[in-house]
Amino acid sequence: MRRSLPAVLGALVGLVVALAVLLPGYVGLDRVTPFVQLAALTPLLLVVVMVSAFVGRFAGVLVRRKGPPLDERRPRLFAAGFAAMVAAALVALTAAGIVGSRLLADDAPVGSRGPTVLTVNTDRGRADVDALAALVRERAADVVVLPEAGNLFRARLTALLPDYRGWTADASSPDDVASTSLLLGPRVPAPQIRSVPGRLFGTLDATVSGVRVVAVHVAAPYPPSQVGLWRDDLARLVAPACGTPPAGPTIVVGDLNATADHSVLRAATAGCTDALPAAGSGTVATWPTALPRWFGLQVDHVLVGGGLGVADAEVLDVPGTDHRAVLARLVVG
């Protein structure tokens, strides 16, 4: 037993290291580099480690030479293997809990029809304007939020959607990447809108018939020098609207450059419901489009609270941009 103790302790140390690498957003490490970046990959890393562990265990059984049982021949190796299997089981259960919760849709809320919300990061104004206009029309979107869309892109889009009104934050910027645009459809009454200056990107804070709409683009936590800016953006632009249950109907929409595995995002949005996970699509990637939907990151969000619920939500393709669009149909409870 004493000879087995170092192996067990080594396995436990390995488990602690694995938790830090695989689950930084759940053990409070995802506020600094490299754990911020690793947190975004949590579901993928969990699946890879889980599959690797079981494949390795199966391969070990196949190649084991005939002889006395492993626990009689190598007690330390047996103890380490047992600890590793326990760790693998914990990883498997954690993966099932994290991924499973995003695949199971919430119960459909009861209420009257609310707005239909669409958001897509246009990738510095490179999204196909004709395709986007057709999508807005086809899905009858009432609220359209477009990170990285400046005055020029908004003008091109509203020319194809003449009954939509539009506003752009950081309107003086010559670069689409620093701008965020908001379009409201013909069913939406006239809003009150203020532009919130951002350190990198502009934000629009609108009130429409008592419904607050925040169109936002949060700084990315990369390069490492921007991690502090990323945390500050979430705390300053998102948390005031969704950090606690909002008093009135609230919609926070846009590219938050964070996934549900980031504790900073979960804290900033604790009072709201994220539309895609609520609809059972919490594992569908919105970025980058170069990777399959099951392999990328879900960084674009529609968050609702204050009496608004999610009837359904989906991820849609828009040509020309490296982000996929998020469409959510809401209900008023």
Q: Please mark out the parts with pLDDT under 50 across 5 or more consecutive residues, or reply none.
A: none
Sheet with the most strands: spatial strand order: 3-4-2-1-12-11
Evaluate the radius of gyration: 23 Å
Annotated CATH architecture of the largest domain: 4-Layer Sandwich
Query: Kindly state the mean pLDDT as a whole number?
Result: 85
Q: Structural class, from secondary structure content?
A: alpha+beta
CATH topology of the largest domain: Deoxyribonuclease I, Chain A
What is the total number of structural domains?
A: 2
Please tell me what the overall shape is.
globular
Helicity range of the residues? 25-40%
Can you walk me through this structure?
The relative contact order is 0.14. The longest helix is centred in the first third of the chain and has 29 residues. It is built from ten helices and twelve strands. It is globular. The mean pLDDT is 85. The N and C termini lie far apart (61 Å). It is α+β, with helices and mostly antiparallel strands and 333 residues long. Helix 1 packs parallel to helix 5. It has a six-stranded mixed sheet with strand order 3-4-2-1-12-11. It has two domains: 99 residues; 221 residues, Deoxyribonuclease I, Chain A.
Describe the secondary structure blueprint for this structure.
Elements lengths: L4 H18 L12 H6 L1 H22 L6 H4 L1 H29 L8 E8 L9 H10 L4 E5 L3 H10 L4 E5 L10 E5 L7 E5 L6 E6 L2 E7 L9 H16 L7 E6 L7 H6 L4 E2 H4 L21 E6 L2 E9 L8 E8 L1
Parallel strand pairs: 1-2, 7-8
Antiparallel strand pairs: 1-12, 2-4, 3-4, 5-6, 6-7, 8-10, 9-10, 11-12
Summary of the model, kept short:
By secondary structure, this protein is α+β, with helices and mostly antiparallel strands.
